[in-house]
């Protein structure tokens, strides 16, 4: 007679223990699934995200002193991109120089020089830029964008430019088409 | 014969009667009008795209060195390659047109209203998927249009605040278009997006079957005419007829206006005149009218409004029950889309 309540107690204690263990297993299982599948998704995301930025290198352009104020030259990168480099000052440091990219800052198309209109023109969305690369009409002008500039530096009197070294285009070796000097470019 | 039938019946325990019961729901009479067939049309064209796409994938090689040459081989050397590619291209064009027309029909007949709001949103996702499949599709040819279209597309995503840079890198597999970009477009075009579209289509069609087709009664119909007809065989035969007509149309288009090869992609020279496919004319013109971030954010806002339109319409009708605002807004939207498309088509720049 005394056994019955004890058995009931035991049974209810068993039930609550079983229920607790069941819930704990459920939580552990959910946690394990979230952790494992989450890790898989995170790995997949990292796998799809590019591992390295586009490789760049500093390349020799010209002797800085060989370019006088007002001189300009056309530089071709290993990727074939055209860069207009000009000297606009006579302070004697890198701030005298600018290197204009031919890539439109709006959506990445290539601009071309229109001699008759004295401007760079982007055929994709009608962006126009003055010879200094400042947008004069089209979406880039609305957004106050200019043609991007390549980083330049002067070391021991030598002018260098930082450019991408990889391309999809079939191109020749990098070169300088100078209006002021005959220096040739080369990888540093 | 009966033994074979019995062998199958034991292993596949579904009878013809059961299949008929599952599929044979009454179809509202208004579906006999041709403009209500625009939902089935893109579904049929989607199947055509899968079949012709698989055939094209036998020869296509997704790398910058080989893509253009492999498409040229398909077009100019493989037997009937020009025909298969022509069908694929024209079916894509018709599919985009049919999806847009289907959405316009659903909008102006108010078929997105309660309880069909979720199905409208799924339809919007299908429209976006169709446009992205179209975009990735013409990127694969590696013509000038392909390359510069992809470059512009990636830079559009770059202008989205906060996540734009991440989206661009994920899209191009790098900072700029590179060796690994084309294979990414290919897998999106041929595997990821079709799988998403199949899943969305299953839900879309299931919801149509579960909710039933919204019913209309036209004024010119006699009152004693039955309100419904049978799915099987009546509606099925109509769909088969539409499929056959589409196939004839596709064959004619692929033969009379065969696909061609444009100039190979040149990453150093953007062509003097550049245009995307016609279904992106609206976006292209919009991008010319407004600066980058404003254009992208405003387009995103318009798409978002379209996405949640059933709820906006619900609010309008709650506060202005007799209002026909949705019709006028729809007309204004359609007129703007047509005007921007025609404008872009008419001018060189």
**What is the number of E strands of chain B?**
2
CATH superfamily of the domain at 30-213 and 229-271 in chain B: Cytochrome Bc1 Complex, Chain C
Query: What's the story with the biggest beta sheet of chain A?
Result: 4 strands, antiparallel
Oligomer: heterodimer
Overall shape of chain B: globular
The computed structural class of chain A is alpha+beta
Question: Which radius of gyration of chain A do the C-alpha atoms yield?
Answer: 32 Å
* Helix and strand run of chain B: HHEHHHHHHHEHHHHH
Can you give the mean pLDDT of chain B?
Answer: 90
* Class from helix and strand fractions of chain B: mainly alpha
Quickly give the CATH architecture of the largest domain in chain A. 3-layer Sandwich
Give the ordered list of helices and strands of chain A: HEEEEEEEEHEEEE
Q: What labels describe this entry?
A:
heterodimer, A: 188 residues, Rieske Iron-sulfur Protein, 2 domains, four-stranded antiparallel β-sheet, 12 strands, B: 349 residues, Cytochrome Bc1 Complex, Chain C, two-stranded antiparallel sheet
Topology of this protein?
The complex is a heterodimer of chains A (188) and B (349).
Chain A: H1 3-48, E1 56-63, E2 72-76, E3 82-87, E4 97-101, E5 112-114, E6 119-122, E7 127-129, E8 135-137, H2 139-142, E9 152-155, E10 158-164, E11 175-178, E12 186-187
Antiparallel strand pairs in A: 1-10, 1-12, 2-3, 2-11, 3-4, 5-6, 6-7, 7-8, 9-10
Chain B: H1 2-11, H2 16-23, E1 26-28, H3 40-57, H4 67-76, H5 81-108, H6 117-139, H7 144-158, H8 164-172, H9 181-211, E2 228-230, H10 231-256, H11 281-289, H12 292-307, H13 309-319, H14 325-346
Antiparallel strand pairs in B: 1-2
Could you describe the 3D structure shown?
The complex is a heterodimer of chains A (188) and B (349). Chain A is an alpha+beta fold and 188 residues long. Chain A folds into two domains: 1-51; 56-187, 3-layer Sandwich (Rieske Iron-sulfur Protein). Chain A has helices at 3-48, 139-142; strands spanning 56-63, 72-76, 82-87, 97-101, 112-114, 119-122, 127-129, 135-137, 152-155, 158-164, 175-178, 186-187. In chain A, the strands form three sheets. Chain A has a four-stranded antiparallel sheet, with no helix packed on it. In chain A, strands 4-3-2-11 form a four-stranded antiparallel sheet, with no helix packed on it. In chain A, strand 7 and strand 8 form a beta hairpin. The radius of gyration of chain A is 32 Å and the shape is elongated. The N and C termini of chain A lie far apart (97 Å). Mean pLDDT of chain A is 82; it is low at 179-188. With 349 residues, chain B is an all-alpha fold. In chain B, helix 5 packs across helix 10 and helix 6 (117-139) crosses helix 7 (144-158). The model of chain B has no long low-confidence stretch (mean pLDDT 90). Chain B has a domain at 30-213 and 229-271: Cytochrome Bc1 Complex, Chain C (Up-down Bundle). Chain B is globular, with a radius of gyration of 23 Å. Chain B starts with a helix and ends with a helix. Chain B has a two-stranded antiparallel ribbon. At the A-B interface, helix 2 of A face helix 7, helix 8, helix 11 and helix 12 of B.
């Amino acid at each position: 007679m005394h056994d019955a309540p004890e058995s009931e107690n035991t049974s209810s204690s068993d039930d609550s223990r079983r229920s607790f263990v069941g819930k704990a297993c459920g939580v552990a299982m959910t946690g394990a699934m979230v952790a494992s599948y989450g890790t898989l998704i995170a790995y997949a995301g990292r796998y799809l995200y590019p591992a390295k930025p586009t490789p760049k290198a500093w390349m020799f352009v010209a002797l800085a002193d060989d370019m006088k104020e007002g001189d300009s030259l056309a530089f071709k990168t290993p990727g074939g991109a055209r860069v207009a480099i000009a000297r606009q000052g006579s302070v004697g440091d890198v701030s005298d120089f600018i290197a204009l990219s031919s890539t439109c800052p709006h959506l990445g198309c290539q601009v071309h020089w229109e001699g008759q209109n004295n401007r760079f023109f982007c055929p994709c969305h009608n962006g126009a830029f003055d010879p200094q690369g400042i947008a004069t009409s089209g979406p880039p002008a609305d957004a106050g964008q200019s043609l991007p500039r390549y980083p330049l530096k002067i070391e021991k009197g030598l002018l260098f430019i930082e450019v991408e070294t990889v391309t999809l285009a079939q191109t020749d070796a990098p070169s300088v088409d100078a209006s002021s000097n005959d220096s040739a470019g080369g990888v540093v | 014969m009966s033994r074979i039938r019995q062998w199958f019946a034991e292993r596949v325990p579904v009878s013809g009667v059961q299949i008929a019961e599952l599929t044979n729901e009454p179809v509202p009479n208004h579906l006999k009008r041709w403009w209500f067939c625009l939902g089935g049309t893109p579904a049929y064209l989607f199947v055509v795209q899968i079949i012709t796409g698989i055939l094209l994938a036998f020869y296509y090689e997704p790398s910058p060195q080989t893509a253009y040459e492999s498409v040229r081989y398909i077009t100019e050397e493989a037997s009937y390659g020009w025909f298969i590619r022509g069908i694929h291209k024209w079916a894509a064009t018709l599919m985009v047109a049919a999806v847009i027309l289907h959405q316009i029909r659903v909008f102006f007949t108010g078929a997105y209203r309660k309880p069909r709001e979720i199905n409208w949103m799924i339809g919007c996702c299908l429209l976006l998927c169709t446009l992205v499949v179209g975009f990735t599709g013409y990127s694969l040819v590696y013509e000038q249009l392909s390359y510069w279209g992809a470059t512009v597309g990636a830079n559009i995503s770059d202008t989205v605040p906060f996540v734009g840079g991440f989206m661009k890198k994920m899209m191009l597999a790098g900072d700029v278009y590179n060796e690994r970009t084309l294979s990414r477009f290919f897998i999106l075009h041929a595997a990821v997006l079709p799988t998403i579209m199949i899943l969305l289509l299953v839900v879309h069609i299931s919801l149509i079957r579960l909710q039933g087709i919204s019913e209309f009664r036209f004024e010119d119909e006699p009152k004693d005419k039955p309100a419904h007809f049978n799915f099987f065989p009546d509606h099925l035969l109509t769909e088969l007829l539409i499929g056959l007509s589409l196939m004839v149309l596709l064959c004619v288009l692929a033969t009379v206006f065969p696909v061609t090869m444009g100039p190979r992609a040149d990453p150093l020279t953007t062509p003097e005149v550049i245009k995307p496919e016609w279904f992106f004319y609206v976006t292209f013109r919009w991008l010319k009218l407004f600066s980058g971030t404003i254009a992208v954010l405003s387009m995103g806002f318009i798409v978002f409004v379209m996405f949640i339109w059933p709820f906006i319409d619900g609010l309008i009708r709650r506060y202005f029950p007799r209002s026909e605002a949705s019709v006028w807004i729809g007309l204004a939207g359609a007129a703007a889309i047509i005007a921007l498309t025609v404008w872009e088509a008419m001018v060189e720049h």
